[in-house]
Please model this.
Amino acid sequence: MVHMQSEIKKIIIVGGGSAGWLTAGLIAAKHIKNSAANTLTNSVSITVIESPNIPTIGVGEGTWPSMRETLKTIGINEADLFTQCDASFKQASKFVHWENAPGTCDINHSAASAYFHPFSLPSGTTKLDLASYIGEQYSNSSQAQTFAQHVCFQSVLCEQNLAPKQITHKAYDYVANYGYHLNATKFAQLLKDHCLNKLGVEYLSSHITQINNDVEGDIASVTTDSVGIVAGDLFIDCSGAQSLLLAKHYQIPFCSKKSVLFNDSALAVQIPYDDDDAVIASSTVSTAQTAGWIWDIGLQSRRGVGHVYSSQHITDEKAEEELIEYIKSSTSAKQRQSLSIRKLSFEPGYYEKFWHRNCVAVGMSAGFIEPLEASALAMIEQAAKMISEQLPANKQTMKITAKRFNEKFSQHWQQIIEFLKLHYVLSKREDSSYWLANKESSSIPQSLHEMLELWQFQTPSSYDITQSTPLFPAASYQYVLYGMNFKTQPIRTANRDTKAIQRLLLDVQNKRQHLAKAMGSNRELINKIKQFGLSQI
Amino acid sequence: MTNHVLLNNIEHKDLKINLERSAQMGDNVWYTQTFPMEFRSAQAHYPILFQKDNGTGQITPVTLFGFENDNNLFLKNGKWDAAYIPLAVQRMPFYIGFQESTVDGVTEKNRVLTLDVESPKVNKTHGADLFLEYGGNSDYLEHIANVLEALHHGLQENSAFIEALTNCELLEAVTLDIELNDGSKNQLMGFYTINEDNLNSLSQYKLAKLHSQGYLQAIYMVIASQVHINDLVARKNTQIAL
Model:
């Protein structure tokens, strides 16, 4: 017998920002029938409570391609990202000086100092496993081209900062898979406007002063300083690093991952371009430093640059020096004097569980890890999508959904952490205690140890990944592994359709040449989108 | 190469326009822009489809003359084999240019007639005169001026027309599968057409609105024009049989 009062009808989202508004948008798009008032016909209502006192953190400027599907689902007009959020196209992560420190490049292989992890899978992934073939070949000899250049046509767009689509493509369609670089604050504003004006989400601007449990221990309501008590059936914690409901209220323990991923601090700065026509990069550039790495994200009007580092291995002063050194070539001395550098500290890790009773955490309230593969927004999308698609009917079934959610997202966090750690473990850098400590066996999770052992003889495959819907497919491991010149040397040579593989490889090269001529620059396309929009058909 | 110059009766008084329609004269185009006011004339002879402009992504209606670049199936023995030639072809090699002039301190943009002097149609021996003996405009030039004027206003109407169509979700991508007598199968991609299912399920309100804008008639003319795709296939079959 199901009691009426246990039905999930009123959803309260605590906190705006990208997490709050993406979650509101995804749930509303699926469950709210008609934004034009008649709330009686709706089975659920969604209210976002945003504190006017707490600013959003406003970092998290890189998305995965999954954001296209998310925004399409929510009903965002893609062109609005470019007119309102300073957005640009992201097609890859580019890793610079991760394998070797600058100036110490191993001369035995002609390895470039940088490699790409593009968003497009290697050609023939589903049929011929080109990557395995090249991965093995790649290990045997010095190569004129990097792994990504061999197996993925998108590499050329990343190298030459060309756009992933043309003005004739409809919104969200492409030649090469892409996500976005964007201004996170403006992005949250765009989502907010859309949620309130188009999707029927309700909004309260008020500061939460108290959280009130019912007799069972579920959250019954929150008390605010200006709009009284707000009751709800499901509370979604999007309160950011303070984790107001999950950590502060429910005291769910935190699993620190500092022993695996050392970085716990960041210095962020914004650098305007010299002129309106400055090149906009197609990739997030991550340049390894002595005790961390520097991100470099090109938006339309500025770059966002930041140094993520381990406070155990470098002082804030020294970290700032490295950051200043990095931006020296692209700024004037005068500009550097007026820079405002923001310091952020974080504890890498995640909570023991994310969904507890009638409260689920999405975004930084669930955990945080350095943005090496820009996983933060992708995790928000995944969490919000599951909440929306598996929205429990009542509190009884919520227990089951919560259990599944917790299992799934614990796995996601573990995979992210292992995958990020892989970037450090593969490095040949020995120029600082940071890089040496990163390769110490005790800092490497057991399952990563095992995979590394297997990969000496076999290339990464779907067998390495236990989840049904992993955040990173085997291809991602291949891009990083062979981008860093890892050696896979199988003792048995498998039978292969070598002719078909050669054809496919040639096809990648032809496509690279064709696209280099056919595609315009990121800047060109963005200007056109701002002038003409993107068609829906 | 093109070289557009402002037309004047001194520099250009001896020029003639060759009226022959042929590949040599630059007429070998496989489609050209059109606009709702022209649909009535165009649909009698050509399929009307929609296409995106490569430079802007904006959708415009086009009349189709063939299935591939440099293959206009209406060119025959120096003539255009149809009773009506779309204005965007008729006007060649003339264009509308804009000139700024300042009168009493107010700067205005004026439309002016320009000529592509590099066009193979431009010569001094064959075809229609541009100017009369004492510098007046020839009937031909008057006609061209009217054509350009109609074209200018017609094309301006397109963006509102396309917006009305997209708002009602009446456009859809179409792939034309064309099988020729020689057994070859061809696909024509990159065009859009009217989504008739959506048109048929349009609300009365939306239908009435399209009608009041004068677009409903245009939409049905586009649909009616599709029969000419068969005519193009027949012309193509004749061409390959030669």
